[in-house]
Design brief:
With 377 residues, this protein is of the alpha/beta class. The chain contains 12 helices and 17 strands. The strands form 4 sheets. A 5-stranded mixed barrel has the order 6-9-7-8-10. Helix 4 packs across helix 7, helix 4 packs across helix 8 and helix 7 crosses helix 8.
């Protein structure tokens, strides 16, 4: 059991500003994927908070979101202090969000250790995840390590970036061995084509890059100073006003539009020499599209996954999702439809072939360019 002294210096920054466009028409700008309860009863964001609550005090949890999503985030997370729910004035990718998170944490504790977690992951076994995160907190608090949680690949998926892991890290002198295995990170690899992904999985030396990081405030700011001096300078400015919500909001509104749009992977992780990979030995899924949701739904004998009053003749391997309010739901009947996605909301219907699921994002862009239809985005 950790002492209270350790716990009070632990922080979690949840990145919840994504738009989740591939889940249109259920996902909208004001109610994106992370705020939806798709496979479960709670939203992805609420489940993310629930998973970390045993490890950090609620007052040490920050959520970084957008202006459009802030009201719903506040509604869904009533126990988190209002000043811990921060809206970015404009999306500037993950490096800006991490920098802002570091300023918020540092203003509370310059000896703080922070985990940066996405808001939209599915992790069925919270206990296993908590063990890995707790061990990563412990290691990050001891030294200058940048820790990323790498997931053991379940197959040659081309939708994820990969991390090439090197030798196992020996336990620190005088420290007891953790349950989690840690490796040195050799290199980060962009999303590969299928044959290369198969090579990676078969080698056993690669992990999926899940975008989950743990580091101390000192370590992340030193990393920014070395590799992203402009972000480091911004972090210093935000640090000074981080405990004054109105001042912080004014400063961000003025400075955010001028920031370079860059991911934390490209800005820091690919250049840093002190990256350690924590072995994520828990079940994990990053629901990137409607086809991914099918992995979490029960299928009928023909392979149809339905959250709807659904009837069919010769239908197979379809995903049917009825998100209409209960009083407006009607049976959805299909004949001869195969390998398709059919989603119905109160104001829109999506019909797509499963092989084209990633193109729903293109559809959302097209809707946004149409004056009559942009209200649906």
């Amino acid at each position: 059991m950790k002492s209270k002294t350790d716990i009070k210096d632990r922080f979690v920054v949840i990145m919840a500003g994504g738009r989740g466009e591939r889940f249109w028409p259920v996902s909208r700008e004001k109610m994106p994927k992370q705020l939806l309860a798709l496979p479960g009863k709670k939203s992805f964001l609420q489940e993310t908070v629930d998973r970390v609550l045993p490890l950090v005090p609620v007052k040490n949890i920050f959520v970084i979101t957008t202006e459009a999503q802030l009201p719903e985030v506040r509604k869904q997370l009533p126990t988190i202090p209002k000043q811990n729910l921060i809206a970015e004035p404009i999306g500037r990718d993950t490096c800006a969000a991490v920098t802002l998170g570091a300023a918020l944490v540092g203003a509370r504790s310059t000896t703080g250790v922070m985990a940066v977690l996405p808001a939209d992951h599915v992790i069925p076994d919270a206990k296993k995840f908590q063990q890995v995160l707790s061990d990563a907190f412990e290691l990050a608090g001891r030294g200058q390590a940048i820790i990323t949680i790498g997931i053991k690949p379940a197959g040659p998926d081309t939708g994820y970036g990969y991390i090439h892991v090197g030798p196992e890290l020996p336990p620190a002198q005088g420290a007891k061995k953790t349950r989690t295995t840690f490796y040195r990170a050799e290199r980060f690899v962009e999303k590969p084509h299928f044959d290369r992904a198969l090579e990676y999985v078969n080698s056993g030396q690669y992990r999926w890059n899940a975008g989950m990081f743990v580091w101390s405030f000192v370590t992340i700011t030193e990393g920014l100073q070395k590799h992203q001096p402009e972000m480091y300078a911004a972090c210093q400015r935000w640090f000074k006003v981080a405990n004054h919500p109105a001042k912080l909001a004014r400063t961000l509104a003025k400075e955010y539009p001028g920031l370079r749009k860059v991911s934390i992977d490209y800005a820091l992780m690919e250049h840093a020499q002190n990256v350690i990979v924590a072995d994520g030995v828990f079940e994990w899924d990053d629901l990137g599209s409607w086809t991914a949701l099918a992995r979490h739904l029960k299928a009928d004998p023909e392979g149809n996954c339905a959250v709807a009053d659904f009837i069919h003749v010769d239908g197979a391997r379809n995903i049917i999702y009825d998100a209409r309010t209960k009083d407006r739901r009607t049976p959805i009947a299909v004949v001869g439809l195969r390998d398709s996605i059919l989603v119905q909301t109160d104001d829109a219907v999506l019909l797509a072939h499963k092989s084209q699921a990633q193109k729903v994002k293109e559809l959302v862009k097209k809707l946004g360019e149409d004056a009559k239809l942009k209200k649906l985005v």
